[in-house]
Amino acid sequence: MRLAGKVAIVTGGARGLGLAISTRFAKEGASVVIADLSGADEVAADLVKQGYKALAIQADVSSEESVAAMVEKTVKTCGTVDILVNNAGIASTVMPQPFEELTVKQWRAILDVNTVGLWLCCRAVSPHMRAQKAGRIINLTSSTAIRGAPFMMHYVASKGAVIAMTRALANELGGDNILVNAVAPGYILTDSNVANADMSAKVSAITLQRRPVKRHGYPEDIVGTVVYFASEDAGFVSGEIISIDGGGTYH
Ligand SMILES: NC(=O)c1ccc[n+]([C@@H]2O[C@H](COP(=O)([O-])OP(=O)(O)OC[C@H]3O[C@@H](n4cnc5c(N)ncnc54)[C@H](O)[C@@H]3O)[C@@H](O)[C@H]2O)c1
Question: Domains in the chain and their CATH numbers?
Answer without folding.
Answer: 7-244 (3.40.50.720)
